[in-house]
Design brief:
alpha/beta; nine-stranded mixed β-sheet; 9 strands
């Protein structure tokens, strides 16, 4: 049985003051782990211009984010690509947890397809690639180095995993660009992190989740392909340890992923899948956005109706506040995906009065 999004309260005020807060707490306890208190942390940023032209006059800089406490320090870097013709423009931040993983085959084409900086900057955006796995390695034996040590995270069944750390690290990059409009994006495990980052951080104005699948955008109950048993066995460090208790017992989990998407409302959300990516299960990703649309309706924002159908390589609800497409092909992110994402971002970022932040408490 799918858990109810609204619980006992169905109104706008009940959602923002009670139910949404409860859902986020359930996701912390049972899925991603609790983000530790960070009031005592010091966060500093240093931006250094790199003297090389990326083509079309695009400038590259390196942003170093340092986190310190109790005489301990860690840092990670973000690559920043800026169009000098549009300084101070909106930021598209990609959460990149792939930079130090030797099991991921890297190539110039793969990296470009996941984040085409020339196309993004040409349209007036600052492109930021946050190398979050420098703050928390994607390694079950080493992930508790870096931010784990500085925050002195305590081991426990609901202690945060790597997805939580990556999402939190992305928010520290947002600290630096907090005076700009921010779109957060991610592919695969990066897409999971983007969703969790946006659900927690109201400064995120728009979210792109590409093929995030299990524990990302896809519904857990009834899912084909990767399930909780698979992801907690192969990647035990991604989520909190308690999540593994629900392996082969998905119905006992008090939340499902449509509730995570609902926590992003009323901000624009784009979820995409790939037709051959049965491991992620495109149909369960689509079901999730349809169910989450009921919360967008509270804000009078157009979601995806239950009668909608998937048409390959076509955006469902392109002018709405939740959009979705299922692109022909395997588990990957391509330029054709980004063309659709950028069209969606353009529409919403040009409508400067249309986006409400979470906790606004005003009618739409």
């Amino acid at each position: 049985m799918i858990p109810e999004i609204f619980g006992y309260g169905t109104g706008f005020y009940a959602w923002e003051t009670e139910r949404r807060i409860k859902i986020l707490d359930l996701f912390q306890e049972h899925v991603y782990g609790y983000t530790p208190s960070v009031e005592c942390l010091q966060v500093d940023h240093t931006l250094v211009r790199i003297n090389r032209d990326q083509g079309d006059g695009i400038e590259e800089s390196l942003l170093t984010t340092r986190i310190s406490a109790n005489n301990l320090e860690t840092s990670f870097r973000s690559r920043v690509f800026n169009n000098p013709l549009t300084p101070g423009g909106p930021v598209i931040l990609m959460i990149d947890p792939f930079t130090h993983n030797p099991s991921i085959p890297h190539s110039q084409d793969r990296n470009y397809n996941q984040f085409p900086i020339d196309i993004i900057t040409r349209q007036g955006y600052t492109a930021v690639c946050a190398q979050v796995d420098e703050a928390c390695l994607d390694d079950p034996d080493l992930y508790q180095k870096g931010i784990y040590e500085v925050t002195q995270s305590k081991e426990g069944s609901s202690t945060w995993g790597a997805i939580g750390v990556w999402a939190w690290a992305a928010s520290r990059v947002i600290d630096y660009f907090s005076d700009r409009r921010i779109a957060v994006s991610g592919f695969s495990r990066g897409g999971k992190s983007a969703l969790w980052c946006a659900a927690q951080d109201p400064r995120v104005d728009l979210v792109i989740s590409s093929s995030s699948g299990c524990s990302g955008a896809a519904m857990t109950r009834g899912k084909t392909g990767e399930q909780i048993a698979d992801i907690t066995r192969s990647f035990p460090h991604w989520m909190c340890r308690k999540y593994a208790d629900y392996a082969d017992q998905e119905d006992a989990l008090p939340v499902d992923q449509h509730m995570l998407l609902a926590c992003i409302a009323p901000r624009p959300l784009y979820v995409s899948s790939s037709s051959e990516d049965t491991w992620a299960d495109p149909y369960k990703e689509f079901e999730s956005v349809v169910l989450a649309s009921s919360v967008y309706a509270l804000y009078e924002k157009l979601g995806i109706s239950s009668g909608s159908e998937i048409t390959l390589d076509t955006t469902v609800n392109p002018d709405g506040w939740i959009a979705y497409h299922n692109r022909t092909g395997e588990h990957s992110c391509r330029i054709t995906d980004w063309e659709l994402y950028l069209s969606f971002i353009d529409k919403h970022f040009q409508n400067t009065e249309g986006i409400l932040s979470v906790g606004s408490f005003r009618s739409v």
